[in-house]
Structure formats: structure tokens, C-alpha cells
Amino acid sequence: MKYFWCTVFFCGIMVACQNHSVKNLSASQADSAYTIIGKIQGIDSGWVYLLHRQSENQKVDSAKIDTGFFIFNGKSATPELCMLGLSNNGHKEYRLSVFVQNGQIRISAKKDSLNDAVITGSQTQDEYKKYIAGRKPLDEEMKKLGKLYDSVEAKKDQRLMDSLEKIFEVFGIKEKGFVKDYAKSHATSYVAAFEVYQNFSYNPDAGELDTVYNQLAPEIQLSYYGKRIKNVLDIAKKTAIGNVAPGFTEKDVYGKPVSLSSVKGKYVLVDFWASWCGPCRAENPGVARAYKNYHAKGFNILGVSLDEDKDKWEEAIRKDNLTWTQVSDLKGWKNSVAEMYGIEGIPMNFLLDKDGKIIAKGLRGSDLDKKLEDLLK
């Protein structure tokens, strides 16, 4: 399905706020601390974890649970998006997003419904609730479309699936419009920046994103997510349609270096994917058919995997019958080529002409076939 992809975000995280200005943040506020006091019903002991998603290495704090209560202390000069999680069979499972800011924050939750926690004391979190309420009609529409697509997909009705994918494209435009309007009217909002980043970083249109970014207040542009947007924007300008694709060299499954220039002279699809990415695996049969149908006519593919486990990568290549060249540095989301191309979600691809210029990107499902049919008649 075109609308679904794997991203660096936690699935289902949506954060928002009202017009939260940072202009009046004083030095004393920036130097003060926050305290998070929490109570989780259904747990008497154990540990709770706070993941600092905006820290360089995503630092994790831990707090011991005593008769259901826990406390975190720290400092945050500006509102910071964090994740709260519990231990599940030895693994940290993060299920609650919360904006942490200086002051006292209280969290009341139940063990089996952590994401429904009641959070007080964070102004930005309060703004988040209002934002979510404002976009509720969009979320309900998305749920209905998702259920409908699942039922059609189960019947393997390709004609209806293609029709629904077009509806998802229209929905995506509507959702972006909602975020654009929110960012314009909440230029000093931290979460406006987060929502812009979340909704515009996958296969961004440089012109559109440039307009939205420049509507944000200067101090928000300098915030964590403001800087992330700027990075996405800068790369989007370099990888826009009409530009020559950035060159790279990475090792294949045999450890042999393969360069993008080595496949020059044909139409080339630079295809970003991973063995652990469900939407990628769902796209692979269509990509394999395109390779089979058009390879002899002058079409080639260079797969770039965001895997970390070499065995799983190779197993997926065999299972999905990916017979073209595959490369990876096995660094996951920190793959050097993915960072060069500004990949924030997969599957994602770039179609290059015989001279290495980008002529299309983000081709999913039947769109790849249609494009190749036009080029290689």
C-alpha cells in the first residue's frame, strides 16, 4: 500500500501543541529542572524507562517502581519529546509519548493501557491533546480506509487495490494540508515542527517543504525538529528530479565494492529497503516483476538495504527472488547511502536515466510499471 512505509518513528506516535512560544523562555527557566511523578496501576515493582529521543544517542533513564510509583528528575531547556516504557520479557517496550519540560509532570496510567495515560503539568502535552482532538476526523478516516484496504488486499483484487491507493494519495494531500495550516497558525510551536517533520520527511517535495519550513518562527527552526526539517530540505533539493543522483560505493553480499557509476548506461532504480520492513517486502514482488519484464530492454536495479543482520538480509534476498545487485553497510538507519539520499522512510526509490539524472522517485506498485512502459516501449 502506497500510504504505509517503515520510518524511524515509533508506530502510532502523534504529538501536538497549541501556539507554544519560546520567545519568553528566561535563563532561569532554562536552568531549572523537571520532575516526573508517575503511578502505574497493576505493577508493584520493576523498572520504568524514559527514552530521550532527541538526545544524540537516544539516552535512556530508568526509575525503580515502588508500589506502583516512580520518579524521574532531569533538566530540559526546551520541551523534549520522550517515550515512556516498561520491561516486557527482558525487552524495553515504549508505548507512551510525552513532551517533557521543566516543572512537575504527573502521569497516571494502567499497566495494560500505558498509551492512555493521563498526563498533567506539561503545557506542551496539553497542546498535544488539543491538536489530536482537532485532527480526529482525519484519523477516523484513515482507520476506515485502512480496514477497507485490508479487506480488498485479502481478496487480492488488484484493480480495487490500485483504486484505493489513489484514494490514499488524496488522503495524504489532505493530511499534509492540515499540518501546513497548523504550522502556519502556530509558527512558534515545537510540535508544529515535529508534525511537519513527521509528515513531510518521506519523499519530500523540496518546494513545498521549503514554503512550510519558512513559515516556522526562527527559534523553532533552530529547535531539534526544526534542524531535522532543514536537513531533510537541504538533501531534498540535492536529490530533486532533474538533478544528477549522488554517487556512492558500498559492498555487496560478497563484500565486493559496487559503485553507482558501475551501472550507468541503463535506466537504474536505486531501491532502499530492508528485510525487517513489512511494506518493503510487500513491494518486492512488484519490483521483481518489473526487473524481469524490462531488464533486457535496458532497466537495472541497485538495491540498498538498511539491514544490520547480514543473514536476515541474505535470506530475504533469496525468499523474495531479488536477482539484481544488492549492497549494504549493515548499519541500519545509519546506512551512509540512505543518509546521503535523506531516507526517512522505506520503501523508497529513485529512478535514474542513462546519464544518472533523477527522473522519478517514490514509485510504488503499478506506478513503476507504468513509468518503465513509457520509457522502454
Q: What this model shows, in words?
A:
With 377 residues, the chain is an alpha+beta fold. A five-stranded mixed sheet has the order 14-13-12-16-17, with helices on one face. It has helices at 27-31, 123-134, 136-154, 158-185, 190-200, 206-213, 218-221, 224-238, 278-294, 310-319, 336-340, 366-375; strands at 6-7, 34-41, 45-52, 60-66, 69-74, 80-88, 91-100, 103-110, 118-120, 249-251, 257-259, 267-273, 299-305, 325-327, 345-346, 348-352, 358-361. The relative contact order is 0.12. Helix 6 packs antiparallel against helix 8 (224-238) and helix 9 runs parallel beside helix 12.
Low-confidence blocks of residues? 9-31
N-to-C span: 27 Å
Taken in chain order, the helices and strands follow as EHEEEEEEEEHHHHHHHEEEHEHEHEEEH
From the spread of the alpha carbons, the general shape counts as: globular
Mean pLDDT: 89
- Strands, count: 17
Structural class: alpha+beta
Q: Strand order across the biggest sheet?
A: 14-13-12-16-17
Largest sheet: 5 strands, mixed
Radius of gyration: 23 Å
Q: What percent of the residues sit in helical stretches (DSSP H or I)?
A: 25-40%
What amount of the residues lies in strands?
A: 25-35%
Tally of helical runs: 12
